[in-house]
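Now for our specimen.

. . .
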Amino acid sequence: MAVFKKTKASDLHTLSKKLVVLLKKHYSPVGQKKDKPVLETMLYAVCLENATQEQADASSEWLHKSFHDFNEIRVSTFGELTACFEGMSDPDARAARVRSILQYVFEINFDFDFESLRRKTLELAEKQLQKIRFLSSFTQLHTLQKSLGTHTVPVDDRIHDAAIWLGLAPPGCSTAEASDALKSAVMKADTATFCDYMRCFATDPRLIPTFAKPKPPEDGFDLDEMLNRATELLNNANKAHKAHKPKPESHAAKTTKPEPEAKAAKAKASPVKKKPR
């Protein structure tokens, strides 16, 4: 296992800000609305884990359109719920989390209002969320960040792998440990923006193979090279994408017919003149 080099907090904050500036040149995420109810925030987090924002938006919309209301979702079958996560990773686990969240909220309130969580301290809110079966740490931290405004960095498997590759998290760490490492690297005011851009970076299909199999050097990652490595990776990905992109046909190729075909078409189109008798 590589040795994770410790860096001063102030230096990490500067690096994370520079990383966001770099990622802004390549991605344009749309942040989640802050006024979303707690329950909807939790359900959206289930859709967002290990997914792009576009995938999360699509599955969340499908979930709400496929059922009449939250109660219908609560009493639905796993088969009906997994259909809302078609094409995404772990659809069964997502379905289990959605139903478990709704069942828990309904059992304690006999309705689907979970806004009381906002009025709790961080410690009490964490304890209550931990009572929900199948709830992932990502969903919990995402809910705390968006609903309570806490200084948390929700980390799923994709962000975990990207953080290790960048050198912001130690190799071999868990998602919880990666979350703590990133929390130290980002100031509270910058957390939401950092998370949005890290998700774009971590779920970019061109880059996932690189993050999935990190090969840390024996003496650990050099954070001074993080920005250079990220810049090179993104530039190479853009070049490869352009190289494989099919070239559009020229205007002449689209409009000019081969000569034999053009003559045949002209002959077919021209009326035959009859000779006078």
About this structure: The radius of gyration is 26 Å. The chain is about 60% helix and 0% strand.
